[in-house]
Every structure is written in structure tokens, then in C-alpha cells.
Amino acid sequence: MSATTLDLSLSSELEELRTLLRDFMTRKSPVGAARERAENGAGYDETVWHQMRDQMGLPGLALPERYGGQGFSAFEQQVVLEEMGRVLHASPYYASSVLAATALLASGDERACDAYLPGIAEGSVHATCAVSGPGTTVRVTGGGEAARLVGEARFVVDATTASVLLVVAEGDDGPGLFAVAADAPGLVREPLPTIDATRPMGRLLFEDVPARLVGRAGEGLRISDRVRTAAVAALAGEQLGGAERCLEIAVEYAQTREQFGRAIGSFQAVKHKCADMLLQVEAARSAAVYLARLLSHEDLAQPIGQSVAEGTLVAAIVCGEAYVFVAKQTIQILGGIGYTWEHDAHLYLKRAKAAQLLAGSPLRLRAEFAALTAAAKAGDR
Amino acid sequence: MSRTEWRAKDPDQFRKELRDWLARTPPGRAPRGKHERIAWQKAWSAQAVEAGVGGPGWPVAYGGMDLPFELQVIWQEEMSRAKAPNVPGTGVFLAGPTVIKHGTPEQRERYLRPMLRGDEIWAQAFSEPGAGSDLASLRTTARRDGDVYIVNGQKVWNSYADVAQIAFTLVRTGSPDSRADGISYLLIDLDTPGITVRPLKDITGAETFCEIFFDDVRVPVANRVGEENEGWSIARTTLGHERAANALNQAAFYERVLGEVVALAEERESLADPGTATALADLQVRSRVMKITAMRTISDIITKGDPGPGSSVSRLYNSAFEQDLNEFALDLLGIEGIVTRDSDLAVQRGRWIYGFLRTRASTIGAGTAEIQRNIVAERVLGLPRDPVTAS
Q1: Chain B contacts of A276, Cβ < 8 Å?
Q2: B136, burial (CB in 10 Å: exposed 0-12, middle 13-18, buried 19+)
Q3: Confidence of residue A132 (pLDDT cuts 50, 70, 90)
Q4: B49 forms bridges with which residues in the sheet?
Q5: Alpha-carbon dihedral of residues A278, A279, A284, A290, nearest 10 degrees?
């Protein structure tokens, strides 16, 4: 593929959006705010969320115009996520505008899209989507108006604060996507405390909960794949932004902290560590930007193709590991103070590790990639 | 096909015309022997310049095409596709820009076209036994005597010096402790009396570079490029982003080699072992990253004129990759991999054991990985320079 046919560069308009967002985040949602809310279990700041909507139309940035969105693609969205990741910003964006919106658009269910997407784009509806993972088994019995969900979904982002919950449930017709109201009878929502308090997760316990099928029965796997890819791409943006911020913190410290009569950044061990961190950041940038560019051309109604599947795994592996590596090394360079609760570094490390594992354990992802490429080869023969 | 028309061509049109020319004038296969190979490179380079398809980034006046960056990328892609050879020697990227930007009109007339045509082969002579990473400490002296310099000293790691006609050197014209402030850039005719070139054997057993001894060698002052004692600053002159134009090809090259390793693994049914499959997957993932980073670099140069930090760390990333790739292939073969090429039990003529050995140099030559990390940390991240070099 010729480089000129796949533009991986950010336009000047996109750089302006970044500057706007960075300025907004610095003033309205700095990492200190994320930290405070996390420590107080306060969740996201609604005022700030509304300001993001009013000043920048952020909730609907990457949603189609027909639903009140701005019609941008995953490529532009990634810049937004980078800036959010930089400051560990907590908001409904990830769960609602990325996960849930993708699930709805992938389902092709126009009624459901009309019912929920305008509210999501406007920031007035907070939705989330449960993706498959350990401890998540939800079954559906009955059909149509009589559809009822039974089981449990774990590690659901914003489970206790969202008003609309989307979940893939296994039924007689195969897996399907279902929508549940937060106040539905038989539904219990519990917080699931994890090490990353900046991204609240929860458990959903279903006991004969009325639910509505979204899209067609049996489409659950295809829709899950789409949600997973969108999740990885969004996380990749956050991981890139967070890793970059950590590197800045480390370099700033290395330039100012003096020991043995000179800045510690003048010692090669420290310099080389920083250089290695930059290496990881740039690798992450490549993987993230490439996936975002691939997704900007995608039709969500279709199943994922080989290059998107591979690009997703590459981003999950590379961006996940880069952020964890950089966060660890940042603490290392900070030395003793990096180990204190008071310093922000541990917040980034916790976000990095949680985000990495959210996309899949690194121990399994490469095996998954190997299987994917082997399957493609077998298919070619 | 008049040369001056190249700039105006649209990318698709340019690619098509170049491809057509290559189809009519294919380079043919690379010969095996060293001297045969060099003769092939020389013949091809001369032909390319004559046809107006040589020197994509060079001025037209000296035999080049003066292509905009985007077309240079296409040129690189098509030449690579056709497996066209490079100009022999190390002068084109390393000395050409210096002479183009800092040479006198006479020097440019005398040296550039023959270099580009391969009529004269150039060998770099910068490093010395006592001056590698710390090149500014070099001790080969050039003492002025009327209209000549008398050169004494020794250079090392000089690729192609045994077949070259011209050595481009950095010599000390200042006081012994003048470091970078007392270095001049001097072109030395390797036929000059007093020069001894001795091939050096590397750890693979091959003789790909040499050492050069200078014993009272008389070199015209007219061969000095730039002012006396200004050699250090002009030595690293580059033309636009010439090197970056080849970034995608380099990534594609690694991808091809990786593909050959995969084929090897499949042939030996090694991929059933999950550890092997996972290790291979890691290399494949890294290969993707290299390709995307090359694409990003090229995209950024075209759209913004600047490659950004990704390109400064790509050498570090790529060299680690090629080392790991070769070692992985060797490990795949196990004990069978260490059989040397002269045995009929050698696997792929010992390709991977030699590759493993050869790539030890990937993190040493043209700037060690440690120096590169220093440079990245200092120039890209703004960290303080090492106390010694800061003086």
C-alpha cells in the first residue's frame, strides 16, 4: 500500500481540536479532579460533561449526523480520547459514545438507534454495553415482549450510573444484543471495585429481567466483535495520551531533580530509559493511529474483516504494553516520590494496567494473533 | 523522457513511466562474486544516470532528478520492486550532500556526476581505532605545506575502501586538543602514494570493511570541502529527507525476511509449539509497527514537511527487530542452525547463523544504540548532555 493512499497524519484542523480540548481539560478536568473524584467515589462531573457537550458537541462527535452527531470518524475520535487519557478524565464518553453507540450502530436496528442515539449524541442518555469476559454469562428466555434475561455480567463500565444497558445474551436462536432499562425489575447493579478508580466498573445481576432485542437474533457475536474493536481503538487513544503524559512527567523530573551535583537526566541510565520510553510511545502511536484510520473507512453493519481484526490485536498488544511500560518507568525515574500515594504517577500506572487487561491479557493476545494469521493463511490456500 | 519533466508528473503517471522504463531495461539478477557484483552496480548506475532515472534527490545539474519527496518515495518503491542495485560505495547519501551543498563549483563538477554514475566509488573514512563514538577526538592529521596537506594517521571500518577510488575523510587540521573545532573535510584519491588499504575480517568471516593507513600522503588543498576547521559541521549534511524516502522499503524488506522465517517455521512444523507461535506473533506485530511508522514518517513529511520523533527512534526499533528476527530463526533451527555454509547439512547455507552474527553490528555501526539513545534523549526529549561532551 502506498503511504499516500492511507493518510496517517493529523490535519491542522485536528491539531486545533486537540489544542482546544487540552486547554479545556487543563481548566475543567485536570488529573487532580479525576483523582479527587476517584478517591471520593464521586463518579464523573456532570457539569463538565454538559460543558463538553455545549462547547464542543463532544458526546456526539463520532456519531452520524442523522442522529444528531457531528459525523466524524474513529480517526478524529482518537484525538479526543488521547486528550482524555492524558488527564485520566472520567466521563460517560467511553461507555456511552463508544461502546454503546457502536453496539447500536452495528446492530443495524433503526428503531433502537432512533430511540437511543440522539440522546447519546446529546449527552442526555448515558448508556453502556457489557462485553464478554470472565464471569459474564447471560441467557435469554422467551422472545419478543416476553424476552427475559438471566445471569450475570461483570466488568461492565459505568454499570451503576448508566440508564441504558446493552448486553449480549445467549439464547435458543444464538447470541443476541439486548437493551435493558436501568430500573428494570429483577436487575441488581453493584459497583465492582477495581484498582483503577478513575474508570468505575460494576456487576449486573439479572433475574428474569425484561429486555428488548436489538437487531436480529444470532447477530450477537458480530456485534460483540465490533464493540471490542471500537473499545480497543478507544483505549489505544487513551493509552497513547496517558503514556505521552507520563513521559513528559518523567522527563520534566529528570531535568529538575538534582543529585550528585547535577540533574539526574544527565546520567545515561536515566536518559536511555527515557529514550526507550519514547520508542514505546511512538510504537503505540503507530498502532493506534493505524487502527483508527482503518476504522474510519468501516461499515459497522458488516462483520470485521481480516485487516481490522489484525489491526485490533496489534493495537491491543502494542498500546497496552507501551502504556504499562512507560508508567512503570515513570515511577522508576521519580524514585521514592513516585511510590507515594500523593504523586499522580500511580494513578497512571493503575489506569495503564487496567486498560491493558481490559483489552485482553498480554499472555493470550499474541497467541490470538498467531491463530488469526494462521487461519487467514489456511483460508488463502 | 527529458529529465526536467519529472517534477511536473503526477504520482500515478510518474510511477507508470518509471515502471515501464524498468520493464524495458530490467537490472537482471545480482551476480554472486564481489567484483562481479560491483561491476553490475556500476553498469546499472551509469545507465540510470544516462537515462535520467538516477539520483532521485540530487540536483539535475549533477545527474539527478530533483524529485519532490512524494515522487522520491515512488522511485524507491519501483526500484526496490525491480530489485535494482544501489550505486556502489557509501558516497551517495553520506558525501554527496556535503559536496552538493558545500563544495566549490569546481568540486561539484569534478566529483558529483562520476559518483552518481558509479564511475568512481567512494569510501567513508571517518572512524579511527581511538575515535569511534567519540569521533571528535580523531587524530589523523593534515599538516599544511603550501598547496597540499600532508596526511598521517589511520582510519578503520571503511567499507568498500579496497575497491574505491575516493576516500572522504575527516582530518585534524587544528591543534591536538581542538576536538570538533579543528577538523577538516578532505577528499583523498586512494591511488595517492603512501596509502595502504587492508581488508578487515568481521565476525562472520567476511571482509566487508577495511582499515586505511596514511603515511605522509600529499593531498591538494583544493580537495578540502568547506573551510579549514569547518569539517565537523558539514560532515552530516543531508538532502531534504532523502533517507526517509526509503523507509517503507526497509519495512517491506523486513516483512519479506520475516515471511521467509515463517516459511521456515512451517516447513519444520514448529508452529504447533505455542511458545514458538507466540514468539513469532511478537515479531509479526513489531513488523507491522515498523511498516506503519514508516508510513507515518512519509505521510508527515509530505503533509507537514517534518517527520516527527517517530523517525528518530525507528533506527533503534528496527535494529532491535532485525537482531531478534535472526536469533529467533536460529533458535528455531536449534543445533542444526549452527552448521556453516560449507557443509551439506547447512540449513539455507547457514543464512541464520551468519545473520545472527552480522546483526550484532546493527546496534553498533553508524552510531551505537547507546549513542542513539543519548541523541534521542538530548535532542528530542531535551535532557541535559553528558558532562564530558558538554565541555
Answers
A1: 373
A2: middle
A3: confident
A4: none
A5: 120
All residues of chain A having their beta carbon less than 8 Å from the beta carbon of residue B383 are 251, 254-255, 263, 265-266, 270-271, 274
- Report how far apart, in Å, the C-alpha atoms of B125 and of each of A301, B128, B169, B232 are: 61, 8, 5, 13
Identify all chain A residues contacting B382, using CB atoms and an 8 Å cutoff.
251, 255
Beta-strand pair B183-189/B166-172:
antiparallel
Full DSSP string of B348-378: GGGHHHHHHHHGGGGGTTTS-HHHHHHHIII
Contact list, A7 vs chain B (CB under 8 Å): 299, 303
Nearest beta carbon to residue A265 from set B282, B288, B384: B384
State the Cα–Cα distance between residues A54 and A47, nearest whole angstrom: 10
Q: Please report which confidence band the pLDDT of residue B309 belongs to, taking 50, 70 and 90 as the band edges.
A: confident
- Of B280, B295, B385, nearest to A370 by CB-CB distance is B280
What's the predicted TM-score (pTM) here?
A: 0.86
- The 3-class secondary structure across A250-263, one letter per residue, is HHHHHHHCEECCEE
- With 0-12 / 13-18 / 19 or more C-beta atoms within 10 angstroms meaning exposed / middle / buried, residue B263 is exposed
3-state secondary structure of B138: coil
Residue of B nearest to A272 (CA): B373
Taking only residues 292 to 321 of chain A, the set having a beta carbon closer than 8 angstroms to any beta carbon of chain B reads: 310, 313-314, 317-318
Secondary structure (3-state) at B122: strand
DSSP conformational letter for B70: H
- In 3D space, the residue among B183, B190, B276 whose CA is nearest the CA of residue B224 turns out to be B183
3-state helix, strand, coil in chain B (%, to 5): 55, 15, 30
Catalytic residue among B242, B269, B322, B378: B242
Residue B128's SS3 state is: strand
Measured CA to CA, the distance from residue A362 to residue A356 in angstroms comes to 8
Taking contacts as CB-CB distances below 8 angstroms, the residues of chain A near B74 are: 2
Q: A322: which residues sit within 8 A by CB, 6+ positions away?
A: A239, A240, A243, A280, A281, A283, A284
Do the Cβ atoms of A98 and A162 come closer than 8 Å? no
State the virtual CA torsion across A338, A344, A346, A348 in degrees, nearest 10.
-130
Among residues A324, A344, A319, the alpha carbon closest in space to that of A252 is found at A344
Query: pLDDT band for position A134 (50/70/90)?
Result: confident
| pLDDT of residue B379 exceeding 60 | yes
As for the ipTM of the complex, it is: 0.78
Q: Which residues pair with B151 in a beta bridge?
A: B142, B217
The answer to whether B242 is a known catalytic residue is yes
Contact criterion met (CB < 8 Å) for A8 and B296: yes
Contact B313 A262 (CB under 8 A): no
CB spacing of A278 vs B313 below 8 angstroms: yes
> B157 phi and psi, to 5 degrees?
65, 35
Bridge partners for A139 per DSSP: A150, A170
In a mutational test of the B interface, the residue from A271, A310, A321, A363 whose CB has the highest number of chain B CBs within 10 Å is A271
